[in-house]
Write a structure and sequence with these properties.
Length: about 650
């Protein structure tokens, strides 16, 4: 074994292979920082280049990109509040709140260090787990895999915000979005409204960008300032390292959670990150800061997601079952180079196995170091007028969304989901459960259908199912007991106060909350009516989200009507200030549809730079030309034609 380890190290440290690893790492960092692109785009763009090298160098390039995606994704999550993946949603929630408090460097520093530790733990486990992980993975049947996904979904619904009814309703809405398109177990298309665009379902980058990035962009442009509300002390890494050291055992435990989550194909990253985030919350005495900027939430989430993305390679190399889209591309590269995953790979090519381990470990350390080097410059962006950043950011989001199917349906879906995200944000509803529910809907449907076909209802009595279900039931019961005791103690101390404890948190904007509640109720009611026409196998998973979602949305709508009657109208001024920005972005979408990207974009830049950022004309022209040329160059690099207009189309030189 030691001989194989040293041989693999010498193989990797040949100059061309080491250069390929670093090139892949740089590409992964760049695409990890761009909202909507992420790991799949990085490895997809690198794929044609790996065949120009030998097999070890080509695989090292892909591994360099895969290993640093979640490290670089921390930058976008913290500075912009836009997670590049569902597994980064806790970091976006806690880290972005810290950035608004002027503590972006703290959140980024701890996130980078936790990601590095998670990556190293993943590499360590990868080196020893391949021979022994097979029996562990095979011991999990489809009922246990379904329950594991359900645990992640429930944690996402209950760990963000105090209102569990709203969190569960948001998770159910995510499942509803996730079942749009072709049913995997029946010849049925669901909720496509006669649109060919929806036949393959909604793309993940568009859902993530719409719910988070567009909504955050609207709010920050309307505020007229930077991301942070106060100046930040730059270059003082001591606080980050001290906080990292205080949270070291939490990061280790979160990494272990992420490693086990990575063993579960197609589910791990989303579920295990939220389980780790829930563990961070449950192990903290003062839980009031969670959701408002708690650094332990960043540490737990980043330790778990980076460990998960590495341990995703375990089922990939054991059973040819990729743990995610990036791992699926890596699997295809293995096949193309003549390597066949499974016991044969472990026994016949151990040098390759340990070369993969060394590549992951080295990229994790170097990726964190490089992120530390650029952080002081990136964190300064939090003090710049956000309208200046919004201009190129919105164009990057359009490009990231448009690469999905290269139709205007991508842009329309981005704008519709952006409106939904804006409504949820101003209503005070958590958006992370929607994203997690959307991602887990497909694997949950596959596992649920197989479970019911193979086991009937007897699967509910399996020991593994009961053990995993206890992770949901026990914390929920303890939370109910805790609230009951707090309510009882409050009533005893203040008998005259008859207001329920749950009403202490006034909604941010009662008007928007009522509108969002009504729209959610209508959506679930229509989905329930539409679902009745599906085949029985196609109806199974939608019912899991729609039936409880309908009941919860009816309860939330009725509760909001009661609160309005008791309290009166509450209008949040920030919501009204954001309406012109929302209208401007929607107008950009309409202009893109009518006259195309190339003509609509200069109008957008003029509005953002002259009106919102209040730049001088000469400066706005120079900056606008640079941004416009960069956007066109990005489309050319990705070999895409920008969206064309239905009225006018301006041809590009390429």
């Amino acid at each position: 074994m030691l001989e194989n380890i040293t041989t693999a190290l010498s193989i990797l440290f040949e100059p061309m292979r080491l250069l390929a690893l670093f090139a892949g790492m740089l590409a992964g960092m760049v695409f990890g920082m761009l909202p909507g692109l992420g790991g799949v785009a990085a490895v997809s763009i690198l794929l044609p280049f790996i065949y120009l090298m030998d097999s070890y160098a080509g695989l090292a390039m892909l591994l360099g990109a895969i290993s640093v995606i979640y490290t670089a994704d921390t930058i976008t999550s913290v500075l912009l509040g836009a997670p590049g993946s569902p597994a980064s949603a806790p970091t976006a929630i806690e880290g972005h709140a810290l950035a608004k408090q002027g503590k972006a460097s703290l959140a980024l520093g701890v996130g980078f260090l936790a990601s590095m530790i998670g990556g190293l733990f993943g590499a360590l486990i990868l080196s020893v787990a391949i021979p022994i992980a097979g029996p562990l993975v095979l011991a999990l049947g489809t009922p246990e895999l379904f329950m594991f996904a359900l645990v992640g979904l429930c944690f996402a619904a209950s760990m963000v915000g105090k209102d569990i009814a709203v969190g569960l309703a948001a998770a159910c809405f995510g499942i509803l979005l996730g079942v749009v398109g072709a049913a995997p177990a029946a010849a049925n298309y669901r909720f496509i409204f006669g649109q060919p665009y929806l036949m393959d379902g909604l793309p993940l980058p568009i859902v993530a960008l719409g719910l988070f990035a567009v909504a955050e962009l609207i709010g920050m442009v309307a505020s007229g300032g930077g991301i942070a509300g106060k100046p930040m002390a730059m270059g003082k890494w001591g606080e980050s390292f001290r906080e990292f050291w205080r949270s070291r055992w939490l990061i280790v435990r979160a990494s272990i959670i992420g490693i086990f989550g990575g063993f579960v194909p197609a589910v791990g990253a989303s579920a295990s990150t939220w389980i780790a985030y829930g563990h961070a919350m449950s192990s903290t005495k003062d839980k009031r800061r969670f959701g408002k900027g708690e650094i332990r939430g960043v540490a737990g989430a980043e330790g778990a997601n980076n460990a998960t993305v590495i341990s995703d390679l375990v089922p990939t190399m054991l059973f040819s079952v990729p743990g995610g889209p990036a791992a699926a591309i890596f699997l295809g590269a293995l096949f193309s180079f003549g390597f066949y995953p499974g016991p044969r790979m472990v026994s016949e090519t151990p040098d390759l196995m340990y070369m993969i381990v060394w590549s992951v470990a080295l990229a994790s350390v170097m990726g964190a170091a490089l992120c530390f080097a650029v952080t002081p410059y990136l964190a300064r962006l939090t003090r710049i007028n956000f309208a200046l950043i919004a201009a190129p950011l919105l164009l990057i989001m359009v490009a990231g969304a448009y690469q999905g199917t290269q139709t205007f349906g991508d842009i329309l879906a981005l704008l519709v989901l952006g409106v939904i995200g804006w409504l949820m944000k101003n209503a005070g509803w958590p958006r992370a459960p929607v994203l997690v529910g959307f991602v887990l809907a497909t694997p949950m449907e596959q596992y649920f259908w197989l479970t019911t076909q193979i086991h009937g209802f007897a699967w509910l009595t399996r020991p593994g199912v009961l053990i995993i279900a206890s992770l949901i039931v026990v914390p929920m019961l303890l939370n109910l007991v805790r609230r009951w005791r707090a309510s009882k103690a409050s009533a005893a101390a203040n008998p005259a106060d008859t207001q329920p404890a749950s009403d202490d948190d006034a909604p941010r904007d009662s008007t928007i909350l009522l509108l969002a509640s009504a729209l959610l109720l209508i959506a679930f009611a229509y989905a329930c009516y539409e679902m009745m026409g599906f085949r029985s196998n196609a109806r199974l998973m939608p019912a899991v989200g729609i039936v409880p979602g309908l009941l919860l949305s009816a309860y939330i709508f009725g509760r909001q009507l009661y609160r309005l009657r008791q309290r009166g109208q509450i209008v949040h001024l920030g919501s009204r200030q954001e309406l012109p920005v929302l209208a401007g972005i929607l107008a950009y979408g309409v202009a893109m549809w009518l006259i195309g990207f190339s003509l609509a974009t200069p109008l957008l830049l003029a509005w953002l730079l002259l009106r919102c950022a209040r730049m001088r004309l000469a400066s706005a022209v120079i900056y606008g030309v640079i941004v416009y040329a960069t956007a066109q160059g990005m489309f050319a690099l990705m070999r895409l034609t920008p969206p064309v207009g239905s009225w006018i189309n301006l041809p590009m030189p390429w």
